[in-house]
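Weekly modeling sync, notes
Attendees: S.R. (lead), two postdocs, one rotation student

Agenda item 3: backlog of single-chain predictions. S.R. asked that every request posted to the team notebook include the full sequence so nobody has to chase files. The rotation student volunteered to paste the first one in as an example of the format we agreed on. Action items at the bottom.

Example entry:
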Amino acid sequence: MVTRPLGAQISHMLKDRGVDVIFGIPGVHNIEMYRGIEEAGITHVLARHEQGAGFMADGYARATGRPGVAYVITGPGLCNIMTPMGQAYSDSVPMLVLSSCLDETAFRKGQLHQMKDQEGAAACVCDWSETAHTAEAAYGLVDKAIIEFEVQRQRPKHIQVPIGLLGSDAPAPPKPHHSVARFDQAISGAEAIAGLLTDARKPLLVFGGGAAKGHLIDGIENSPYRTVLRKSRAASFCTYAGRGLVAPDDPLFFGSYLAKDGSAKILTEADLVLFVGTDLAEVDLWREHAGHEARAIVINTDPGVLGATSVAGDGLYNANALYLMNAVAQVLEDGSGDTDWSEDAVTVARTRFRAETDTARPGIVPIVEALAVGLPKDTMYYSDMTQFAYVAKEVWDMDRPGHWHH
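Predicted structure, as returned to the notebook:
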């Protein structure tokens, strides 16, 4: 069929763009969106509550690296999923929420599930929230979301379509776009960064969760981050979300202890700092500024981070961290690093940080160590606001990224 109801066409469009699973709850307001799911060959996961559907989509995106998609109804359905949308926004998770909306709200009042401003409500907790008033607009917004997931900071998007439009016949959606190439971003600046790393006596790299995006393409053992660290003999920190990017046995790895006061002194000692895919949020540092005084290079896909006071860099690259650092790894000569970092001093600092954590919350470190030994290597961890999580985030060195979500 070339022509289908728009609701069904959207499901077929998503399938053509690699979406295999949709989370949600069907209802009278979004039933037209559901008519095409089975026909398109998509698996639907039914939730008891839209908040559950949202967190399932969030977890799916974290575990697979692919966008999590959810279908919800007008009004309360959208309101219920706004909490996971806000969490996905905070943690840079690609989530696409599609909802129905009422056809007309300016003149008619008191309709079922009517809100004053449904689009505006969703906009408070996601990257953007838009209403599609035509089939062409619906298709365009879906492609806009998917392309932005590829080339920008990954954050949730919301598209709503009027109920009547969802049930009306619409032409087939356009064919999928090819993946957007970002190698131009990678090549630009790679030689300059490699030169700075070679000349520095105490280079320091700080890796965040943004650097983990796409890291599993070739396996973490072949990660350009680890190659750059090996070639340059640079020291490093990871944020909580960046754990696993640096090998736990790297002798110049300070761990994920950025929130410790002593980390500021270490950053002060560095004569070059690279902030790779991190915005150093409040929950990473618990202080206003990282502490560095030397030249800083900031690599981030979010333009807003490039001017942030916490990272305060003078060499700014609006680029994908993985691609840019891969180019740096290729340019950097093997063995070019001859730095003044002391492996013994790094060990002493890590030992001190670990002891401070153990003293602050006694008795938890042994539990962390037991679980680290006893659980399978590919385990996914999800932690909430608990004493155990606060300790584990600092002392548990993950051997791979993207497997601890807080």
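Discussion: group reviewed the output briefly. The chain has a mean pLDDT of 91.
Action items: rotation student to repeat for the remaining queue; S.R. to check formatting next week.
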